[in-house]
Design goal:
Residues 91-110 are annotated as: Disordered. The chain has 110 residues and is of the alpha+beta class. It has 1 helix and 5 strands; from the N terminus they run E-E-E-E-E-H. It has one helix at 68-97, and strands spanning 10-18, 21-29, 34-40, 44-50, 55-59. A hairpin with a 4-residue loop joins strand 4 (44-50) and strand 5 (55-59). The chain is extended. It starts with 9 loop residues before the first strand and ends in a 13-residue tail after the last helix.
């Protein structure tokens, strides 16, 4: 049986090099994140997701003015975040109605 302690928050980072290309991955498995969106010098947006262990930052191509590709990416991020929210809500609601398992007792006549 799983306990709440089995699901402690964690963050990990991976790095790999394949055929001269470096790939970094940051995985946050915690609700203890900050999400900040801001505007840098009035010319470009900046999105930051982070915890005490790490940070992911997204901004415009080359740190320059917003391109149509940047706008497309921003829409993809918003759509994916909405799907993540919807799935969390669906699963959380489903968990709330599942009754807790009753203890398995040897002296129970059932």
């Amino acid at each position: 049986m799983s306990t709440h302690d089995d699901y402690r928050p964690y963050t990990y980072v991976t790095a790999s090099i394949h055929e001269g290309n470096t790939r970094l991955g940051v995985s946050f498995h915690t609700a203890e994140l900050s999400v900040i969106a801001m505007n840098v010098h009035g010319i470009r947006p900046y999105l930051c997701i982070g915890s005490a262990e790490g940070q992911l930052s997204i901004s415009t191509t080359g740190g320059g003015p917003v391109t149509s590709a940047d706008l497309d990416l921003a829409r993809e991020i918003a759509d994916a975040a909405a799907r993540y929210r919807d799935e969390c809500e669906r699963l959380h609601t489903g968990q709330a109605v599942v009754p807790a398992p009753s203890p398995n007792r040897d002296d129970d006549p059932a």
